[in-house]
Amino acid sequence: MTGTETTAHVITSPDEALQVAQDFAARLAEGDSKRDTERILPRAEIAELAASGLLGVSVPRRFGGADLDARTMGELMATLSAGDASVGQIPQNHYFFVQVLTEAASEDQQEFFAGEVLAGRHFGNALSERGTRTARDFAIGFDRRPGGDVLIDGTKYYATGSPFAPWIPIYANDADGRLMAAWVPSDAPGVTVVDDWAGMGQRTTGSGTVRFERVLIPDEWVVPLWQVFERPEVFGAFGNYLHAGIDLGIADAALRDGRELIRTLARPRAEFDPPSAYEDPLVIHAFGELALRVRAARALLHEAGEAIDAARENLTEDTAAEASIAVAAARAQADTAAVSVASDVFALVGTRGAADALNLHRHWRNARTHTLHDPRRLKIQYLGDHALNGQAPPSTGLV
């Protein structure tokens, strides 16, 4: 069922991680449009990602990982997502669950799963359910058997990355209503992964359905996540921070592809007869506004990463709140940059940019789809309440 039979490179430093990510992202970008257009699931690309060692970079050093700082992790997420936003989103769940282990698992559990990750056996996710009142309500069956095993029975949706992952972690509530995380092998009897995600954007994330039909797992694969929220935490901030990196990567990709099309495809305006579209002062000014939004998003992402790192060094209620607020700001600005840059760049390319064959619109579709994950309005609300009333964001794992 499980086992550490695959192999992966082990990355040992931030510089190496970013260089490997940049090289991999450049290769991703070459096939991004085709995969999106034809909805080709990136199985080969995810296998390459796992073999590259990038999925092991957040494993703690005492278990052999690089234990990258949060700031580097944010830039890494942006780099991957600029190459292919769908592929870039898939490791967000993986890194998130590596952090679950770091925050809440026993030393033996951490050591076991660190070995799995460093060998390239990465994590998908199966958190969300349909029909519950909120995204934090879980109805999936989660029952402890007399011998200590846990029986899981039910269905999860929006399970990003699960078609490609050896392990599918889930969220469930125990008999006392406490939040648990459990790791389920994707090849365990009773597990069915269905490729039925049909969103307009992020089309190849594998965010479909996973059914668990009376699946038994040992207690050693269950982690009491509820304990994290009994103390100051930046667990939720880190998960949201990685999402901000995805949005920044989408904005980067839209700016990059828009620049190329303005320089190679856009025609100058007849009214003022500039030598070329890219020498038109109005186009230059408007493109500068787009670049400013992206730079602002990157600056806030870096600031948020540094705030998370600072909180991890000295974790108090105040440092945790500051990290959450910094991430809320980064998430809000990255949302704005991704959606607006991916849309406004069309006006600078001109009518030709709307050609379906160019697939420039994939960046807007990706941005609009991914930013629905955790609405910008919530981030602004937290920012406002903190700035005006000194109110810290709630400790829910979502902020």
Please give a handful of descriptors for the protein shown.
alpha+beta; 399 residues; Butyryl-CoA Dehydrogenase, subunit A, domain 3; Butyryl-CoA Dehydrogenase, subunit A, domain 2; four-stranded antiparallel sheet; three-stranded antiparallel sheet
Helix proportion: 40-55%
Report the end-to-end length measured between terminal Cα atoms.
35 Å
Shape: globular
Side by side, the strands of the main sheet go 1-2-6-5
Radius of gyration: 21 Å
* Helix/strand order, N-terminal first: HHHHHEEEEEEEHHHHH
CATH topology of the largest domain: Butyryl-CoA Dehydrogenase, subunit A, domain 3
Question: How would you sum up the major sheet?
Answer: 4 strands, antiparallel
Structural class: alpha+beta
Query: Runs with pLDDT <50, length 5+?
Result: none
Give the CATH architecture of the largest domain. Answer: Up-down Bundle
Work out the count of structural domains.
Answer: 3
Q: What portion of the residues fall into strands of 2 or more residues?
A: 5-15%
The CATH homologous superfamily of the largest domain is named Butyryl-CoA Dehydrogenase, subunit A, domain 3
Number of helices: 10
Number of strands: 7
CATH C-level of the largest domain: Mainly Alpha
| Average pLDDT over all residues | 95
Your description of this structure?
The structure is a single chain. The protein is of the alpha+beta class and 399 residues long. The chain has 3 domains: 14-118, Butyryl-Coa Dehydrogenase, subunit A, domain 1; 141-226, Butyryl-CoA Dehydrogenase, subunit A, domain 2; 231-389, Butyryl-CoA Dehydrogenase, subunit A, domain 3 (Up-down Bundle). 50% of the residues lie in helices and 10% in strands. The chain is built from 10 helices and 7 strands. It has a 4-stranded antiparallel sheet with strand order 1-2-6-5, with no helix packed on it. Strands 3-4-7 form a 3-stranded antiparallel sheet. α6 packs parallel to α8 (317-349). The radius of gyration is 21 Å and the shape is globular. The model has no long low-confidence stretch (mean pLDDT 95).
